[in-house]
Amino acid sequence: MSSDNQWSAEEDEGQLSRLIRKSRDSPFVPVGIAGFVSVVSYGLYKLKYRRDQKVSIHLIHMRVAAQGFVVGAATLGVLYSMYKDHIRPRFFSESKK
User: Fold this and answer.
1) Which residues does the UniProt record annotate as the domain HIG1 (predicted)?
2) What is the pTM of this model?
3) 59 contact partners, CB below 8 Å, separation of at least 6
4) Which of 33, 38, 42, 43 has its CA nearest to residue 74?
5) For a surface tag, which of 3, 37, 50, 65 has the fewest beta carbons within 10 Å of its beta carbon?
């Protein structure tokens, strides 16, 4: 870090390195991103064969499915974090004593 508190290019973190760091901290972030992309891709593919369904209804269903996948991945990430930080140390550290 520079001493005069000015920004330098060496201190800036790139998008890819930020994503890699975040995925190490919480491994369900890439799962949520991949699920979101796959649901949206599938929904756009199925847009061609929607029969008599309106486009707006189809897009709303696709959005809800994608958001549901991301919320589910975030929930699993929080549960995993709670397990890793609170439950696992309590039960496995006592057995070593």
Assistant:
1) 1-92
2) 0.64
3) 43
4) 33
5) 3
In this structure, are 1 and 47 located in the same domain? yes
Give how far Cα 68 sits from Cα of 53, 58, 60, Å. Answer: 21, 15, 12
Split into its structural domains, the chain has a count of 2
The domain in which residue 69 lies consists of: 53-96
Are residues 57 and 28 both part of a single domain? no
End-to-end CA distance of the chain: 43
Q: What is the rounded distance in angstroms from the CA atom of residue 65 to the CA atom of residue 74? A: 14
Q: CA 23, CA 16: separation in Å to the nearest integer?
A: 10
